[in-house]
Amino acid sequence: MLNIIILAAGSGKRMQSKIPKVLHTLAGRPMLEYVIESARNLNPNSITIVLGHEADVVKSCIDHNDLNIVLQESQLGTAHAVMCATSMISFRNNKDSTTLILYGDVPLVSVSTLRSLLDSCCGGMSILTSISDNPYGYGRIIRDNVGNIVQIVEHKEASQEQISIREINAGIIAIHTEKLKQWISMIFNNNEQKEYYLTDLVKIAVNNSVIVNSVLPKYSWEVFGINDHRQQANIERIYQYEQAKNYMLKGLTLSDPRRFDVRGSLKFGRDVFIDVGCIFEGLVELGDDVRIGPYCILRDVTVAENVLIEAYSHVSNTIVESNVVIGPFAKICKSSYIKSKSKIGNFVEIKNTSFGNSSKANHLAYIGDSEIGSNVNIGAGVVTCNYNGANKFRTIIEDNAFIGSGSQLIAPIKIGNSATIGAGTTLTDDAPADQLTIARSRQKTIVNWKRPKKN
Fold first, then answer.
1. Is 304 annotated as a binding residue?
2. Are 327 and 361 in contact (CB under 8 A)?
3. Residue 143 phi/psi, 5° resolution?
4. How many Å apart are CA 388 and CA 304, to the nearest integer?
5. Which residues form the active site (predicted)?
């Protein structure tokens, strides 16, 4: 039997934020979600989360249907937090029961490391440690002459000699559940901080002749905690770089794996190339031979094969068919559908629009709430005027139409098959198929007119 306790009650004062610490994000998700996900992957009998600061806010931001939630009203230390959770721990079948204690601000510890820790518990106690070149702030592991762990000393309580020790306590503990039940009540707050330290379990185990085992993670960064925004940024870069390396092993070509961010899920085909500074959010799928230029943002997008998305383009909530060219500096959003062989050029925005096969909007246009047919040419500066200040209306442009530069299409409106709209037209009525429609005033010169001057 396995019980898991996740400690997530702290306010995170060093974050200097109104947001609870465990809700600060890593790759676009609250750090607490990573810990919960790892816990679930261990298939435990129970998961209990200890909340404190802004508990209702934290609870509202996580999927907690299968979790036990307990409240630590006063933050009196890690052992006190575990005491609050013990009422939720099942003590049935105590001979075979283990409790794993995790931290909501240590998001990167791997499931394989946690399994190794549980395997080493052996009905007693095992702790996760790490060798750190900069151990400031961490509890130090004190061993005897034969290498057995005898104590953990908090950094604030450590002597000068103990501060020089590089092996640190990562805080994560696996312990026989019955022993936890017995020993947690034996921890007192007779220290400078007047807190109940969970690390005192080590000393109690030693006093009861129980050997405390330890496990090192495969990577030291697995046990990095997030206490301030510098650490948050550092762990973000570590996490993104590890993702990038895994993607490259699966065949993705990255111009620079250290300038690459996935804040969701990325699926890709063969021979996909991604340039520097790109961000992928939500669910993004890229087909074979897709090329993404520098500094693009894709969010919840499906892109078919042989698509080129040029620099600084933003594409969200969109389906892009094959052989399309987008950008540079294009924006496509809000349930748009870009059909094959079309071209969306520089400084073109498309919103809530179906854009037809082999159609073109090469530059400087806004196409919103529209149905664009096949082989349509939309000139520079064309605007679909889809909003009257209260409601939005649709523009329909049928196949083979030509829309001259600088035209304004006042929706709701329909432009027929193979219609031509003269440049500079302000169109307020439907335009018939196969005809040239022009709506603009006759050019005239005002004699003796003078430009106003400043007073």
1. no
2. no
3. -115, 155
4. 35
5. 363 (proton acceptor)
Q: What is the pLDDT of residues 278-309, one digit of tens each?
A: 999 999 999 999 999 999 999 999 999 999 99
Q: How far apart are CA 362 and CA 146, in angstroms?
A: 74
For the residues 414-433, what does the mean pLDDT come to? 97
Task: Reduce the DSSP state of residue 341 to 3 states and report it.
Answer: coil
At 46-96, the pLDDT tens digits run 999 999 999 999 999 999 889 999 999 888 999 999 999 988 886 555 678
9 is in an annotated binding site: yes
Positive/negative CA dihedral, 198, 203, 206, 207: negative
Does the global pTM surpass 0.85? Answer: yes
Kindly tell me the number of DSSP H helices and DSSP E strands found in the chain: 8, 35
Q: Three-class SS of residue 78?
A: helix
The CATH number, out of the four listed (2.160.10.10, 3.40.640.10, 1.10.3720.10, 2.60.120.340), of the domain defined by the range 240-437? 2.160.10.10
What DSSP letter does each residue of 174-229 carry, written as one string? EEEHHHHHHHGGG----STT----TTHHHHHHHHTT--EEEE--SSGGGG----SH
The answer to whether 246 is a known ligand-binding residue is: no
CA dist 350 and 279 (Å) reads 20
Q: How far apart are CA 130 and CA 112, in angstroms?
A: 16
Which residues are within 8 A (CB) of 399 and not within 5 positions of it... i.e. 6 or more apart? 356, 373, 374, 375, 376, 417, 418
Does 391 show up as a binding residue in the annotation?
no
Q: Output the CA angle 68-130-32, nearest 5 degrees.
A: 30
Domain ranges of the chain: 2-223, 240-437
Annotated ligand binding at 377? The verdict is yes
CATH annotation of 2-223: 3.90.550.10
Query: Is 2-223's fold the same as 240-437's?
Result: no
Gap between the Cα atoms of 254 and 272, Å rounded: 9
CA 61 to chain CA centroid, Å, is 14
